[in-house]
Amino acid sequence: MHTTSQALSVNQTLNQQLQSYGYHLRAEDMTALKQSVQHACSAFDLVESDYHILYELIKALAASPYADATRYLPMLHDAIFSYYQLRSLFSWQVNDATILHTLLTFHMQYGTFDKVLIKRCCKQLKIRK
Amino acid sequence: MSSNIQTQKKSSDQQQERLELLKHLIQLYTHHNSSCVPRHVANDMLISITYIAHHATGDASLKKRYVHGLQQLELLCHACKHRLAKVQLYAEWYPNERLRYLLTDFFPTYLKRLSSPYAPLLYAFEKEDIDYPLLDGLPLEHAMYHLQGIDLISHYLEQLSYEVAFLKPFYQELPMIYKLYQMQRHVSLFELNQNLVEVLLPQVLLHVYLKQSYGVQLDAAALDAFNKRLSIMRPQELLQQMYLSLQPYLDEDVYAYVYAYFPILKQRLQNDMENHAELFIFEDNTPKQYTLQVMTACLNSEFTHHQEVLSAMTSTTEKIHYFRTHLHNFQDMIEIWDSYIFSLEELTVLFQSYTPMDFAIFLRHHYAEQFVFTASVTLDELLLLPVSADWEEALHMVLSTLSKKQQHILEQWMNSIKLQY
What we know:
The structure holds 2 protein chains of 2 kinds. By secondary structure, chain A is an all-alpha fold. Chain A is 71% helix and 2% strand.
């Protein structure tokens, strides 16, 4: 995935971008989020080779009107779980960007990451497919 | 300490390289659509990475070995295509639906897919069974080659090219032979999971031995001459001579390939005395069992000799000594016991001379059926089985008199022996 120095530089860049929204991710938070990715992958029998989805979610949810200082991190964990649940339901022919875009679009509309939202995303992605 | 740190660093570097290669394969698999794949696919990818790196020579980093391995596999793939093209030329001779499917559909499709950019994902795997058995792969079990993917395909095609070379000189006669086979067995070779060289090898051996030329057509006069020779030759020598006469007609590697079947053929001739249909021999364009009977009789002449010697002996000690030193085939042993050459007392003395290991091997063979579905068979269970001959009665009597310790050892060995069929 990343070596330690690469990871540090990615964290720095991310935090610079999050600064404008008033958020800051500590190293422990990043470790916990990466573990969350691993847990979600295990739960849905997937193997992830990259953390680019995690970085995309971190950036996107920072801009979410439903997030605040207390809800930002729990929301990120939910988003990770929801993304990998959706990812496991579709083959590679539906690309990562499409799934992420659909998930975030519906989140912006309804403000949650729950079962109903996943059903809505599935319906939308099936229509697109 | 410093070597420990170095080893750890090397292992961590290798892990990092493996992850990068995995990432590369995931991108290849998903057409750059996703960085994520199902676990079973990722497992296959890791197998592919190891498989490809294994084909490289030298002790470089994993990445370098992967790149070198890919080059080697490309060369192997080219060699396979070349071999396939050669073997395909003779596809029409093979009246076997499984082999024709392999030659005209399975191999070409597989090798074509290996020319695509997705080849690294495919080298280690062959999706379908190659269900036409080779002469050196009987019974059909690919696990016996300890190969997979393109290695297995390459090995298979190489062996198949030897089989083509063996059949090539008399290919015009093959349609007639297939008809004869059908006449004798009432089943077409087209539908059978039967190796064609295996069918024809005894016939070719006889032809070469009797007529000093490579072919399959035999006549009654030649077989009569063969019959006369049989009376003055030992069976092992005969089969060996038949193989030797074949040598000048075949290339060295083809001969070596066919010669590897010698022990199996010898064993089959000895074992299948009562099952003549297992071998296919024809004479004057007529399927015959005569030749086979002569051949098995010949192979049995050694047994007949032992039988005569034992019958002439009067001393029990001599008899037992001769029996223990000359007879090692279980079927022969049982036949001797069945022919009343040994009295019940003599049999008891004979069995008393057996060690627990002798008993273990014998019981494992004789009561093979009892061991098929049971993990552990006890001696008591075997002793409860019905007795059908005098020698079995003597055997059971001796077994029941064994000490507890001997019985325990015998049971342990009996259940741990792995038999080769």
